[in-house]
Design a protein that fits this description.
The protein has two helices and eight strands; from the N terminus they run ααββββββββ. By secondary structure, the chain is of the alpha/beta class. It has one domain. The strands form two sheets. The protein has a four-stranded mixed β-sheet, with no helix packed on it. It has a four-stranded mixed β-sheet with strand order 3-4-6-7. It is globular, with a radius of gyration of 21 Å.
């Protein structure tokens, strides 16, 4: 009985000391890996926020999406896809002959109500990146 109690305590102590799961990007799925290989553009960083400050020529609540591409010379545009749903904004990245700022793409629209919960970036028919967090800026 004492051995069983000791074994149980040792097991509980080991479980309590287990390292927490890492906070990083989710594991790469096969579909996303294939989409990234087919796409000529790589996303280095993407951010989204809702600007609650009205200004000249701006809606009082505006959704901003800013994407930095890995290659600073890439020329691309970003377009809202018809696959967008109430919960997910789907943006398509497409190659363009020129870009206002090479290596960057941006998207804006009046903030919907209710707000999207996710932003998904597609290229050549597959998801290459996604955001689950949309900041609020006042």
């Amino acid at each position: 009985m004492v051995r069983t109690g000791n074994a149980l305590c040792a097991g509980l102590l080991l479980a309590a000391c287990a390292a927490p799961a890492p906070n990083g990007p989710p594991p790469l799925t096969t579909g996303r890996a294939l989409a990234q290989m087919a796409c000529p553009h790589r996303i280095a960083e993407a951010n989204a926020w809702v600007n609650h400050m009205p200004g000249p020529g701006r809606s009082p609540r505006e959704l901003h999406v800013d994407v930095a591409l890995l290659e600073t010379t890439d020329t691309a545009v970003i377009l809202k896809s018809v696959a967008t749903t109430g919960d997910t904004l789907v943006l398509e990245i497409r190659t363009a002959p020129t870009a206002p700022i090479p290596g960057r793409v941006a998207y804006r629209e009046p903030a919907p109500n209710p707000m999207y919960k996710r932003i998904s970036f597609f290229c050549r028919g597959g998801e290459i990146h996604s955001l689950d967090k949309i900041e609020k800026v006042y």
